[in-house]
Design a protein that fits this description.
Mean pLDDT: 92
Oligomer: single chain
Largest sheet: 6 strands, antiparallel
Radius of gyration: 20 Å
Length: 263
């Protein structure tokens, strides 16, 4: 889908001196071009850093995701979501000033709990995990019992998040454009009295996952770069959210090239 020319923008910046200097340069050039720097009502968020910086931007502007889009300049340690490198600043500026972007939308995950906490959202994954206690969890998919997991927890990832923590858990890397969810166990325990699938399970994105177990209260919910306690929670629900992140693409940067840059 073709976009319109942008007039209002804001930046989200990695906290290092070099990234901050690039941010000042970008803000100066955009202002000289006639754009308005507006952190309250932006149309475009320019992420300057790595993937962690962009995730921080998404969570900062979570309440207005339907009104904004993101584009990234890579100055960090990992730039899977970014389209431009730190050597391409002037090319980036020329593109955003003179090209109409195409938009790519990626859905978020949403988690609710039995304690009526506010919903939490994630672009990459939601992990239910404990580093000190063994968790004993029953997993249901669309209301049907799927498996009993014993170990450090489980990870539910999106297609976008398949290259993040999911990959470190030996999960599958999912091709661009496929809308799926993936379930991986975290350090599962197996013995003669207990067996689970152990392999990653890739499912349709419209599946709804319920996790139940008294040991949930020992775990934390880790979502992207954030986390929160699950104290007193005995049941939680994870699904694909109606909220989406919109990326403004000013040039073609193939998914295969992103993957190759990853390794």
């Amino acid at each position: 889908m073709k976009g319109k020319m942008i007039m209002r923008f804001a930046t989200i910046v990695r906290t290092d001196e070099y990234s901050e200097s690039i941010s000042k340069y970008v803000i100066q050039k955009c202002s000289e071009f006639g754009w308005d720097y507006d952190t309250n009502n932006p149309e475009l968020i320019i992420s300057i850093g790595g993937d962690g910086t962009l995730l921080r931007g998404i969570h900062t502007y979570l309440s207005i995701l339907d009104q904004i889009s993101f584009v990234g300049i890579h100055t960090g340690t990992l730039g899977f979501f970014t389209d431009y490198t730190q050597e391409e600043i002037d090319l980036f500026l020329d593109d955003i000033f003179h090209k109409f972007p195409c938009y790519e939308e990626m859905p978020l995950l949403e988690m609710k709990t039995s304690k009526n906490f506010d919903s939490i959202y994630a672009l990459n994954e939601i992990r239910i995990e404990s580093v000190s206690k063994t968790l004993s969890l029953d997993v249901y998919i669309d209301g049907e019992f799927f498996e009993h997991c014993t170990g450090s927890g489980i990870c539910i990832s999106t297609q976008a998040g398949s290259t993040a923590i999911n990959r470190a858990l030996q999960g599958a890397v999912i091709d661009d454009g496929l809308r799926v969810l993936q379930l991986c166990e975290i350090m599962p325990i197996a013995h003669k009295n207990h067996h689970s699938l152990h392999n990653p399970y890739i499912m349709r994105s419209d599946r709804q996952i319920m996790v139940r177990g008294k040991s949930l209260s020992l775990a934390r919910a880790c979502f992207d770069h954030l986390d929160q306690s699950l104290e007193e929670v005995e049941e939680l629900y994870i699904k694909t959210s109606e909220k989406k992140v919109r990326f403004a693409r000013y040039r073609n940067y193939s998914y295969l090239k992103r993957l190759k840059n990853l390794y």
